Amino acid sequence: xxxxxxxxxxxxxxxxxxxxxxxxxxxxxxxxxxxxxxxxxxxxxxxxxxxxxxxxxxxxxxxxxxxxxxxxxxxxxxxxxxxxxxxxxxxxxxxxxxxxxxxxxxxxxxxxxxxxxxxxxxxxxxxxxxxxxxxxxxxxxxxxxxxxxxxxxxxxxxxxxxxxxxxxxxxxxxxxxxxxxxxxxxxxxxxxxxxxxxxxxxxxxxxxxxxxxxxxxxxxxxxxxxxxxxxxxxxxxxxxxxxxxxxxxxxxxxxxxxxxxxxxxxxxxxxxxxxxxxxxxxxxxxxxxxxxxxxxxxxxxxxxxxxxxxxxxxxxxxxxxxxxxxxxxxxxxxxxxxxxxxxxxxxxxxxxxxxxxxxxxxxxxxxxxxxxxxxxxxxxxxxxxxxxxxxxxxxxxxxxxxxxxxxxxxxxxxxxxxxxxxxxxxxxxxxxxxxxxxxxxxxxxxxxxxxxxxxxxxx
Length: 459
Known about the structure:
Blueprint: H1 11-53, E1 67-69, E2 72-74, H2 79-104, H3 108-125, H4 134-162, H5 168-195, H6 204-222, H7 224-229, H8 245-259, H9 264-294, H10 299-327, H11 329-348, H12 355-381, H13 389-402, H14 405-418, H15 421-426, H16 429-440, H17 444-451
Antiparallel strand pairs: 1-2
Helix pairs in contact: 1-4, 1-5, 1-6, 2-4, 2-8, 2-13, 3-4, 3-6, 4-13, 5-6, 5-10, 5-12, 9-12, 9-13, 9-14, 9-16, 10-11, 10-12, 11-12, 11-16
C-alpha cells in the first residue's frame, strides 16, 4: 500500500488551528475534574440516599434502603457507579457510529461542537439536582458522559487533519497539558468554594451545585475557541453507500470493521492500550480509597494530592512530548510503563499516616500520567488509515472506556480475598506488564506503512 500525504494548510494557518484545537482539552477537562473525578458522584449518592432513607448515610449509620430502578433494587451509594457503567456500555456501541458519521461529514467541527454543547448543557443543568431528585441527576450524568465521549472521538480525529506526522507528539502533548491546567484551575476554585462555603453563607449542597454549573459553563464557553478556529474539510476515501446519511455511515462502519484485519499492528496497539490504560485508570480511581482506607489520611491530603497530580501532569505532558521528539513516542511510552510499575511498587510500601511520601508519589504519577495519555493518542494517530480517523478513534475511545472496569474489578477482588488494599494495588502491575509486552511487539513502521500514512522522522 502506498503512502498518502494528508492535505495540510500552510504552516502559519496550521499553527493557528493547532492553538484553537488545544482549547477543547482545556474546555472539557473542567467537566472531567470537577464533575466526574471529584464532586458529582458523592453528591448524587447523597441525593439518592436522602430519597431512600430520608437523609444521607454516614459511616456510623449507613443508608441500607434500596432504590427501585426499572424494577431492580439498587443501593443508593452505588448509583453513580451503576450510571457510569451503563454509560460505558452504551458508549462502546454508540461511539463507532459517531465515528462513521464524522468521517462522512463535511462539517466535522459542527459535530464536535454539537456534542460538546449538549454535554455542557447537561453539566450546567446539574445545578437543579437537589432534594431527592436523583432521577434528574442520573439522566444528566448519562447525557454528559455520552456527549463527552462522542466529542472526543471527533476531537482526536481532527488531530490528523491539523498536524503533520512530525508534529503530532508535540500537538497532542500540548493539548493534554492545557487540559490538565484548565481542569486544575477550575477545580482549585470549586474546591475552595466547597471548603469555604460557610464563610460565603452557602450550604455545602449549594456550593457543590454552583461548582457543577461552573463546569458546564466553562466547557460550553471555551468550546467556542476550537469551533471558531478550526475549519471543516471534505471527507476523503468515502465508501459508496446507498440510503440516508445515517444508513450510509453505518454501512461505512461495517466496511471499516471488516477491513480492520488488514491493519494487524493497529489492532495490536489497541490491545496494548486496553491493558496499560486500564492500569492507569485504576491507579487513579483507586488512589482515593487507598489514601483514605489503607494509609489513614484525611480529605485534606486527598484533595492536595489530586491537585498536585493535576498541575504536575501539565509539565509532565510537555516534558514527555519533548522526549518523544528525540527518542520517538513508542520508546517513550515503553519507558513510561516501567515508571508506572515503579509507582505501583512504591505505593505498596508507602507508610501509613505519612503525608510526604504520598505527595512525592503524586509528583511521580503526575509526571508520567500526562505523557502516557498524550503520546498514546499521537502514536495511534499514525496507525489509522486516511479518511477513517474518527472511526478508528471511536475504537480507541471504546478501548479506553469500554474495558475500564477490568482493573477496578481485579482491585476489588484482590481486596476481598486479602482484606488489604496493599496486595490489591500491587496486582495492577500485571496490566502494565501485559501492555508493555504487547506494545513492544508493535512494529510502528509496518503499522504506518499498512495505513498508507507518511512516517514521521522519529517514531
